[in-house]
C-alpha cells in the first residue's frame, strides 16, 4: 500500500503550490521533483487565490513569515480548500515568536488543513499547550520517547479530532495519526536534525503524496514520513562511507527520494499501525 | 566561435545583475561564477536604477514575483537599456497566473530586451498565443518536436521580429533565433527537467555570455544554451555512474560549467545553423 | 585555545538569529548547524525585536536589502545589544549602491556591533574611505598584500577603535583585529571567491563562535576565520581529487566544518598574532 502511494505520485505528477520560506525553497522544489511532483513556489498575494485553485495540493510553511506572505497563505488556503485540494501546514518555529504563534492561530482558524506536520514543540504550540521552544528546533524536554509515547499519541489524536487534520509529529520516533489510527514510525537518522529544511522538505513531500492519493490521507502522510526517514537513513550511510558531512547529506537525501521505488519503500518501512 | 564566446566571459568577467526568484538565486549566482562572471543579486527598488546602470548585463527572472520586485525590474531594465547593457527576460511560469501574464506584458512594453528565454509554453504566452500551462513546466502538448519544428521556428522568428530580442526556446530540441538565423540545438538531457532552476541558471548564463560578447547576440545566446545542454549531458553521466539523483546532478552541472573550456564546447556542440 | 573555542560552540549550541539575504540563507543555516549552532533565519520586522532578545547571537547581512529587512535589522540589533548578545555585521556590497552605503551608515550609527566582517572594499566603504567596488567582490586594486599589510592593519585597528568592533577583513590574507591585537591569517584557497556566500557563511560562523565565547571576542572571530579558511583548503583538495567544481566545493566546505575538531583546527591554523 505504501508503495502504491509513491507510485501514484510518480504517475500523476501532481502540481504542488508551495508558499514557503526563502531558506529551504530550493530543496523543497528539488525534493518535489524527486518524488515525481511538479512544484510551483510563490508567495505573491497577487496570484495566491489563483494558484491555490489551479494546484493539486498546497503546502503552507511558516519559515520566514511576513504580512504579505500571510495574506497569500490565507488566500491560497481558502481557494485550495474550496476546490477540495489537500493543504499541509508546516508551523515552523511556531513557538519561537509571538508573531509566529498568532499567525499559526489565524491560519488554523481560517483554513481547513488536511495535515499539520511539525516537531513536537511546534505541534504543542499549535495545540495551545506548549510555549517552550528554542528557535526552530524542538525542546529536548518535549522529545517523544517510548516512555511518553502513549500520552503523546493521545495528545495527537485529540488535536486531530479538534482540527480535522492528520497530525504528523517528527522526531526520533515519528507519529502520524488521525482521530482513529496511528502510525508509529522508527525510520530516520539523527543527522537529519543537522540538515536545514528536512522538516520543510517532508511537508512538501506530504503535500505531493496527499495530492496523488486524496482518498487515503493518513496513509499518504505516513508514506511521506517513512519515505523521508528511509531516504535519510540511506543518505547517512552514503555520507559516512564517503566521509561527507551535512551539506552533501542533504543532496544524497534528495537523490535517494529521486530513486526510491515503491517496493523499496515497502521493504524499508519500520512502523507499527495501531 | 562558440569557444571564443565562452573565453570572452572568462577573460572579461562581466558583472551580471540578477533580479530573480528566491528559489534558485543561489544556483544562479554559482553558475555565473562558474562561467567566469561576477553576479550581483538584488531585487530592491531602492538600488535597482543604479545597479542596472553599473552592471555589464541584466537578468530579469519572473520566478517569485511581487510588486516591489516588478518595480525593481522596470527601473533596472530602463537604466540598463539606456546604457546599452544586454538584458535577458526569463518569463518563468508566464502562463501560470494572471498576475504573471500581465507582468510579462508590462515588462515587454517598457523594456527593450536583448534576449527572451523560456520553455515553449512560456514563450507562447509571451507571444500572446498560448494560455495553457501547468505551473512552471511546459505543457506536453506544446513540446517542440521534429514534426512541428518548422512551424515553431517561424513562430519564434516572428516573435523576434516583433520584440527585437533573440528568442531562446528550451526543450528536448532548443531553438535560438533572431529574425534571420536560427540555431537548432540538440544538446541536453531529460534529467534537467527534474532539477529546479535549470532554466533560471541558463538565463543567468545567457546574460553573462551576452555581456562579454555584445556584438554577437545570437551567437552568445546559442553558446549559452549549448554550454548548458552539454554540461547537463556530462552531469547526467556522472550522476548515473555514481548512482546519484537530481540534487547531486544540479551540483555536477554547475561543476561542469566551472571546468568547461572553449574547445570542449566546440567539440561537444550539437546544432544546426540555418 | 582555538580548539577550545570551537568545542564551546559544539557543546553550547548557541541559537543564532540570521537576518540575511535569500541567496545564501540555506548555506548559512547549514554551516551554522555544521559548527554546532542552532540557526534561525527571519527578516520579519514583526518578530525582530523578540528574536534579537531570545537568540544567543545575531548576524546581520546586507546581501539583499529592502526597507522591511532594514527595519528588522535595527529592531533586532537594538534588542540583542541591550541583552548583551554579540552582533555581527556583514556589509555585503556596501559600496555597490548608494542605498547599501547609506544603510551601512545607519546600521553603524544605531547598533553597537561586536564584529564587522567583509572584504577589503566593503570595509573601506564602512570606514568612509573607499567607494570603489565592483558589485559584491573586492576591487583588485584594494587587495591586501604583504606590501600594504602594515598600512592595512593600522587602518583596521583605527576602524576597531572607532566602532568598538572586532574588524575582520577577508581576502588572500585575512586580518582580524581589535584596537590592540591582530591576527594575520593565511589559511584559505582562491576557489572560495568562486563560491557564492563564502563571506556570508563565515559571518554566520563568526556569530556562532562569538555567542559561545562571549569573553574572547577577538579570538572567537579569528577562530571562525581560520576554520573557514582551513575547511576551504580541505574542500579544494577534495574538489581537485574528485574533479568537481565550485558547486560541489561549496558542499565540501560545509561538510568539512561539520567534521572539524578542535585539535585539527589547532594543527591546521596558519596565522601570526601581533
Report on the architecture of this protein.
Three copies of one chain form a homotrimer. With 274 residues, chain A is α/β, with parallel strands linked by helices. Chain A has one domain: 3-Layer(aba) Sandwich (UDP-N-acetylmuramoyl-L-alanine:D-glutamate ligase), CATH 3.40.1190.20. Helix content of chain A is 53%, strand content 14%. The first copy, chain A, contains eleven helices and nine strands. Chain A has helices spanning 2-12, 25-35, 45-54, 67-82, 98-110, 120-126, 149-163, 198-212, 217-241, 246-259, 262-268; strands at 15-19, 38-41, 57-61, 87-90, 115-119, 166-170, 174-177, 182-185, 271-273. In chain A, strands 2-1-3-4-5-6-7-8-9 form a nine-stranded mixed β-sheet, with helices on both faces. In chain A, helix 3 (45-54) packs parallel to helix 4 and helix 9 crosses helix 10. The longest helix of chain A has 25 residues, at 217-241. The first copy, chain A, is globular, with a radius of gyration of 17 Å.
List the helices and strands and how they pair.
3 copies of one chain form a homotrimer.
Chain A: H1 2-12, E1 15-19, H2 25-35, E2 38-41, H3 45-54, E3 57-61, H4 67-82, E4 87-90, H5 98-110, E5 115-119, H6 120-126, H7 149-163, E6 166-170, E7 174-177, E8 182-185, H8 198-212, H9 217-241, H10 246-259, H11 262-268, E9 271-273
Parallel strand pairs in A: 1-2, 1-3, 3-4, 4-5, 5-6
Antiparallel strand pairs in A: 6-7, 7-8, 8-9
